[in-house]
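Support reply, case 0932

Customer input (verbatim):
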Amino acid sequence: MTSPTATPLPESGEGRPSRGSMLPPVPPPKNKKTALEEWGIEHLDRLGDMALLLVGSVRSFFSRPFELREIINQIASIGVSSLGLTFITGLFVGMVMALQFALSLTQFGGLEYTGRIIGLSFSRELAPTLTSTLVGSRIAAGIAAELGSMAVTEQVDAIRALGADPIKKLVMPRLVASVLGMPILCIISLVVGILGAMVVCDLQFGLPSGFFMSTALDATYLADFWNGYLKTPVFGMIIALVGCHFGLHTRGGTEGVGRSTTQAVVVTSVSILLADFGLTNVYAWIFPK
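Our regenerated output:
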């Protein structure tokens, strides 16, 4: 009885598959985006959405029915409710600035120039920019929280289901109210700030109030006032668009509302400062000394 002989396996070159050919093919490497590219794409998407909100709001403003009652309600909510913060901001910023400049100028015998510096700095920068940053952050947070709550509870979807336009009902009234309200708030901050600085200089440094006010008015030209005042409608537009964008894109329940509110505050502050730099250069060219 003969024993069975083992059949030799074919070599790799004689039909036997090699170890490498048994493995699946290696996929080509994916084109991974860097963190900077993802950050840039995300912010470009945000800018595009805000631009669409702006265009849609302008179109809906001229279409019927005109949302006059809602615009008035938003002016009261945005403007009247921010008067306290505007008053406190302007008053104490003016007082602190007067104290700092007066202490510094007294060392060089230039106390009489305090009114000039305060009037010029408040007209051009402090009143419009600082007030828009502080008060605007409060407004943007309120808009984001309100619209975010509506988004997570599907009220925005219900508006669309009823055949209405959420931009006309929600975005346009807040945009108009913010654009109209911020210039008024900044004028109040300007007046209160200069008055607060005048009181500090009079009571603490003995600089007469009449002299302070006359020097402040002499140093401030109308071009300086327009240079700061014309920034405020643009700041109001930024505040409303940022708040509406983050509010309408809120997801994730109450946690998402808090996240959108925080993002709205940060983006509003940074956007106002960036816009201030660009607008200062533009208005300095339009309104030369």
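We compared this against your earlier run and they match. Two observations from our side: The chain has one domain: 81-286. The mean pLDDT is 85. Please reopen the case if you see a mismatch on your end.
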